[in-house]
Specification:
eight-stranded antiparallel beta barrel, 21% helix, alpha+beta, 5 helices, 9 strands, Lipocalin
Length: 196
């Protein structure tokens, strides 16, 4: 069994980390550490064709993401990170489920600049919160295309300024369908490429 297969089997059933115990998290991090040592793309920023795409979150230790599930009447649905290297843009999308017909969406748009071969500095520039139904949301790519074309959405869509924060993201493993990242707050992200 490869380390990649071992990782995917170990995180299966953990609901992106929501159901992971301390022991689970320790085991998963050990596998991730070993997988990162075998990274086939040690300079991911020099491989924009691999980075580009819509990535679905399969596991994280991020309290910011997992904490969304603590709101009453809401459950965390799918989470995506859409990377557009040519435009130096990242779109983080969290689908919210719960009350029928009121499925929501939270999107944070960011610009990024290379800080090293594997690290990008991230500046958050836009926050969007709305109804999937009212936004006619079907899948991440369609929403990102509308945002890149300049479309504004209701009810909440405004610019934010995060220049004061030192946000960064390392891509520590990258192949054609799996990406592992580590963020400035110590969080780990395991993402699978979406295929449309």
């Amino acid at each position: 069994m490869t380390l990649k297969t071992d990782l995917l089997e170990t995180i299966a059933g953990k609901n992106r980390g929501l159901l992971a115990t301390e022991v689970d998290r320790a085991n998963i991090l050990t596998i991730i550490d070993r997988l990162e040592d075998e990274n086939p793309t040690p300079k991911p920023l020099e491989a924009p064709q691999l980075l580009e795409g819509d990535w679905r979150l399969v596991y994280t230790t991020s309290n910011g993401i997992l904490g969304i599930n603590r709101f009453p009447l809401l459950q965390l649905g799918q989470v995506y990170q859409c990377i557009r290297p040519e435009q130096r843009k990242i779109y983080n999308i969290a689908e919210l489920e719960g009350v029928p017909l009121l499925e929501g969406l939270v999107l944070v748009e960011a610009n990024f600049d290379a800080a090293s071969d594997k690290r990008v500095n991230v500046e958050f520039t836009r926050l969007l919160i709305g109804s999937q139904r009212l936004m006619n949301y079907r899948f991440p790519r369609g929403l990102v295309e509308q945002l890149m074309a300049g479309k504004k959405f209701l009810p909440i869509d405004f610019g934010i300024n995060s220049k004061d924060r030192n946000a960064w993201l390392d891509t520590t493993y990258l192949d054609e369908d799996l990406r592992v990242g580590r963020g400035n707050e110590g969080s780990v992200f395991v993402m699978s490429r979406e295929k449309y």
